[in-house]
């Protein structure tokens, strides 16, 4: 009896997860050292699913309570297969004014799914590369934060919205 309930529960969880509104084509995380050095670049090599459909691109971060800022600046560079490079400086809100961290998760680690680009068509054939680097600055200081504490993992994901019929 208990075995049947556990099996039923697992089947329900499987179908609820597989019926989400979007489909991941790429979802990879990379750990960063205890302190993310300003010169350290986290890179992802991407083999796009196709060259026709539009995709949404996300930067995914995991942070702990050791993260002491309410925002995060990143330099994100996309290198296309034929050499073109697009570089963006992005700012993301990481905490409310009260200091409560945004994101999901229980306990000390929060996970944030941050928009990078939407409706991107990978119209060049070949591998793409995405480079992510922290670019934090403290107020009134010219030099960047040398070693950023509290970010444990940096991820990148590509997803396509399912077309509803």
Automatic annotation (TrEMBL):
Entry coiled-coil feature ranges: none
PROSITE patterns: PROKAR_LIPOPROTEIN
Signal peptide: 1-19
Keywords of the record: Lipoprotein, Signal
Database matches in Pfam families: GldH_lipo
Name the record gives this protein: Gliding motility lipoprotein GldH
Organism: Pseudotamlana carrageenivorans
């Amino acid at each position: 009896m208990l075995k049947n309930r556990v099996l039923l529960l697992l089947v329900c969880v499987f179908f609820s997860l597989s019926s989400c509104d979007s489909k991941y084509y790429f979802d990879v995380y990379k750990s960063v050292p205890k302190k993310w050095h300003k010169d350290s670049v986290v890179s992802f090599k991407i083999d796009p699913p196709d060259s026709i459909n539009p995709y949404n691109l996300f930067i995914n971060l995991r942070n702990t309570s050791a993260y002491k800022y309410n925002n995060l600046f990143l330099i994100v560079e996309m290198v296309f297969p034929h050499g073109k490079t697009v570089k963006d400086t992005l700012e993301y809100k990481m905490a409310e004014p009260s200091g409560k961290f945004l994101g999901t998760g229980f306990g000390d680690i929060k996970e944030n799914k941050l928009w990078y680009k939407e409706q991107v068509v990978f119209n060049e054939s070949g591998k793409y590369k995405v480079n992510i680097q922290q670019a934090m600055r403290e107020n009134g200081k010219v030099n960047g934060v040398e070693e950023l504490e509290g970010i444990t993992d940096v991820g990148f994901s590509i997803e396509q919205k399912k077309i509803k019929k």
